[in-house]
Amino acid sequence: QGLLAKLRGALGRGELYLNYQPQFDLATRQIVGAEALLRWCHPELGAISPERFIPIAEESGLIVEIGQWVILEACRQAAAWQRAGLPGITMAVNLSAIQFQRPDLCESVAGILATTGLPGQNLELELTESVLVGDVERVVNTIKTLKQQGIHLTVDDFGTGYSSLAYLQRFAVDKLKIDQSFVRNMATDESSSSVVRAIIRLAHSLGLKVVAEGVETAGQTEQLARLTCDEVQGYHFGKPMDAEEFTALLGSRT
Ligand code: G
Ligand code: G
Ligand code: MN
Ligand code: NA
């Protein structure tokens, strides 16, 4: 039995769950967000990396059902933290291109916000550049409809794709997420730090925020602060953790 067959029933059997990685404001060092990261624990195979099963979910179309569940579960958790009086955060959810291209995306996200009671401003959707190269008119309309609900949009893995910079003007995204490959090599590789500097300047000159991911050291943090990066995410600040651990982290901040 292949991985696809196992993945088919995984959601129903409760094998899928979310981890949350904290995101910090670099100036204040406060937690301002969480990125929801999907996990699969198979009873015999153990933990299977999303890098393995997400492509399978995408090819098979299973990503639609799984992705819906991810949005629902992430919003439900964020709303629960809010109701518990914990510091307000934005919940960031990764969206596959296939999900983004569904004509019912905006409606179903609106339904999830209504069901969970999470305000749209507390939801952020992470899109990869590959999403932004589709039918321009359609992408513009989808983004507009999501933004009308207060939802924030971030371009994930920024700098690694092929989207033209001109699209940044047409698509009203709010934030760029600098890919971790640039952050990783920043201290040792002049060209990586140049790319990071350029992305931050580009973002700010377009009125966008910028978040760096994969921040692992104090040195990288200092360098990012000097370059006026807005937010950081990475092992130096906090690894992806389960809901219970994240609740404790939020509680320790009040
Ligand atoms: O979670 P890391 O810890 O291993 O994630 C690996 C990859 O899987 C990343 O590229 C991340 O964007 C992607 N990923 C994690 N969770 C989700 C999800 O819920 N949906 C989609 N589409 N991708 C996800
Ligand atoms: O592509 P996306 O940004 O959604 O994926 C985030 C991925 O990066 C996840 O696999 C997450 O576990 C991983 N990650 C988060 N912080 C760090 C870090 O500091 N170092 C490394 N190497 N990976 C990280
Ligand atoms: Mn992401
Ligand atoms: Na990324």
Topology:
Blueprint lengths: L2 H6 L7 E10 L5 E12 L3 E3 L1 H11 L1 H22 L6 E5 L2 H4 L4 H12 L6 E6 L7 H13 L3 E7 L8 H4 L4 E4 L1 H5 L5 H16 L3 E4 L5 H9 L4 E2 L10 H9 L3
Parallel strand pairs: 2-4, 4-5, 5-6, 6-7, 7-8, 8-9
Antiparallel strand pairs: 1-2, 1-9, 2-3
Bound molecules: guanosine-5'-monophosphate (2 copies), manganese (II) ion (MN) and sodium ion.
From the structure above, extract its key features.
single chain; alpha/beta; TIM Barrel; eight-stranded mixed β-barrel; 11 helices; 9 strands; 44% helix; binds guanosine-5'-monophosphate; binds manganese (II) ion; binds sodium ion; cyclic-guanylate-specific phosphodiesterase
Please explain how this structure is put together.
Residues 1-254 form the EAL domain. This is cyclic-guanylate-specific phosphodiesterase. The protein contains eleven helices and nine strands. The chain is α/β, with parallel strands linked by helices. The chain has a single domain, classed as EAL domain (TIM Barrel, Alpha-Beta Barrel). An eight-stranded mixed beta barrel has the order 1-2-4-5-6-7-8-9, surrounded by four helices. Strand 2 (31-42) and strand 3 (46-48) form a beta hairpin. Helix 3 packs parallel to helix 5 (105-116). The longest helix has 22 residues, at 62-83. It is globular, with a radius of gyration of 18 Å. The structure holds guanosine-5'-monophosphate (2 copies), manganese (II) ion and sodium ion.
